[in-house]
Amino acid sequence: MERLPTDLYLKIFSWLDHQNLAASHMVCRKWRDLASDDKLWSTLFEERWGVERATFYAPAGSESWKDVYIVQDRCDRVGLGLKIIREGDDYFLVHQGQIQRGLGSRRQVDSLNCKNGKKDAESIDEEQPSSGILDKILFFIGDMEAASMHAKRNRLL
């Protein structure tokens, strides 16, 4: 496989859907670089959302087609508004498909066990939900309520 020409790799990758193309990044460095090819992600974008949207959302500056695809996919999944979403065990504040801020992780390994060198199956099972993430979300919601009340008050005056 290592001796295959780059063009053949790209031809094979062009048959993959976005999920499998994203998963191929984890195989090795060469595949990561090849699977990040702008032409591959541009073609996937056009196939899914059409040429007009591809022209409108074309990447600017250092942004890649892969980045544009990820943002548009997230917009389709969660909408355009301001949302708190969970991807895996992590929570994010998202607006118009772009991650604005990471709010933290749902799971937190007991740091005492790791410091004491206990990395066996027993210590891994002792993962506890992180209360820090809940605090951040509650404070964020409180800040949003306060800001919206101030905005409503200004409209009434």
From TrEMBL:
Domain F-box positions: 1-44
Pathway connected to this protein: Protein modification; protein ubiquitination
Superkingdom of the organism of origin: Eukaryota
Keyword Nucleus attached: yes
Alphabetic keyword roster: Nucleus, Ubl conjugation pathway
Listed InterPro entries: F-box-like_dom_sf (IPR036047), F-box_dom (IPR001810)
SMART domains noted in UniProt: FBOX
SUPFAM superfamilies: F-box domain (SSF81383)
GO CC, one annotated term: cytoplasm
Presence of the UniProt keyword Nucleus in the record: yes
GO terms of biological process kind: protein ubiquitination; SCF-dependent proteasomal ubiquitin-dependent protein catabolic process
Subcellular location, record wording: Nucleus
SUBUNIT field: Component of the SCF-type E3 ligase complex.
Functional description taken from the UniProt entry: Acts as a component of a SCF E3 ubiquitin ligase complexes.
UniProt name for this protein: F-box protein
Species assigned in the record: Perilla frutescens var. hirtella
